[in-house]
Write a structure and sequence with these properties.
Layout: H1 4-18, E1 23-28, H2 39-46, E2 50-57, E3 60-66, E4 81-86, E5 91-96, E6 106-112, E7 117-122, E8 128-133, H3 157-164, H4 171-176, H5 186-196, H6 209-228, E9 269-273, E10 276-280
Antiparallel strand pairs: 1-6, 2-3, 3-4, 4-8, 5-7, 6-7, 9-10
Helix pairs in contact: 1-6, 5-6
The structure holds a DNA duplex (16 and 16 nucleotides).
Length: 286
DNA sequence: CATTTCACCTGGTGGC
DNA sequence: TGCCACCAGGTGAAAT
């Protein structure tokens, strides 16, 4: 479900509503899959902690947690732990009230001092929940991810071009590789390749400097606009308040197989690339 | 090492 | 209505 714009939207929503709140208790389902950290360790770690801030990195939602509230609203307390949520394909993170009916496939419920509840719901169970203790004296445990890809919203031309240099794989497959760029998934890979006028199967290392710069800008612009519209709700994505996004209305190729290209009218084609449905305009993309 | 394929899950849709 | 094939926003392990 969620790529960078959806994860960003959810993280902002959770941050707005939960910042400063205290986690009273955490409940987890008995399914083993979603827990990168064993559920009892998560429950123990989360209980009593304060949500200092919530942000996105790549496709991860990171809740910065502390054991004491900041001294004042303008100061920031040092986090001592993190709760990291990856939504997989169908994961939802919802701020709700305890009396709202519990949806099927609810795998985590965090009750908060304010009376609110943070719920993690994930039908396919591809999502992952992780709890980390931080130690700022140990550089390996300051909260950095193991192999973080570059952020597509802030990467510059030189660094972007360097990611693909010498690579033989298809540019679309390269865009999906989270250790190169973090946050791009199937929708935004297809959409940004369309806006850059580049065929998904082109070898990444064979793109010209001009094409790479078109791609970098198309990617940034597409992601920014999607964030403004609250993400793409293709089937079931909703933000932390349960609201759908609107960027699906702006899709030019994704899931538009056979429909006319919005630019030239040529039917959109679908191929399989890196095991994923891949959509492009055979006339606009070269 | 780089790259590709597949398994992990449930649910929705469309054909017969 | 049922049954079946196929498709879906993601990743990480295994195979090549």
């Amino acid at each position: 479900m969620p790529e960078l714009p959806e994860v960003e939207t959810i993280a902002r929503g959770v941050d707005e509503r939960l910042r400063g709140d205290r986690i009273v208790e955490a409940w987890f389902s008995s399914y083993p899959q979603p827990f990168k950290t064993p559920r009892d360790r998560q429950a123990k770690g989360l209980a009593g902690r304060i949500v200092l801030s919530v942000h996105r990195t790549g496709k991860h939602i990171v809740c910065e947690l502390g054991s004491a509230a900041p001294a004042s609203a303008s100061t920031t307390a040092q986090p001592d732990s993190q709760w990291i949520v990856h939504l997989g394909m169908t994961g939802r993170l919802l701020v709700s009230t305890p009396d709202e009916p519990v949806a099927a496939h609810t795998h985590a419920r965090l009750s908060l001092a304010s009376g609110r509840e943070l719920r993690f719901v994930d039908a396919r169970r591809f999502g992952r929940l992780e709890f980390r203790e931080l130690d700022f004296r140990d550089p390996a445990r300051t909260g950095a991810f193991d192999a973080p890809g570059a952020e597509p919203l802030s990467i510059g031309p030189e660094e972007f071009a360097a990611l693909f240099r010498g690579r033989k794989l298809a540019i679309k497959a390269a865009l999906l590789n989270q250790t190169l760029l973090a946050g791009v998934g199937n929708i935004y890979a297809d959409e940004s390749l369309f806006h850059a006028g580049i065929r998904p199967r082109r070898a990444a290392g064979r793109l010209t400097r001009t094409e790479l710069e078109r791609l970098r800008r198309a990617l940034r612009k597409t992601l920014q606009q999607a964030i403004r519209l609250g993400g793409s709700s293709v089937s079931d994505y909703v933000d932390a308040n349960g609201a759908r996004g609107f960027f699906q209305l702006e899709h030019c190729v994704y899931l538009r197989t056979g429909e006319p290209c919005r630019r030239c009218g040529t039917p959109i084609r679908r191929i399989l690339l890196a095991g994923r449905g891949t959509h492009f305009c055979p006339s606009c993309q070269r």
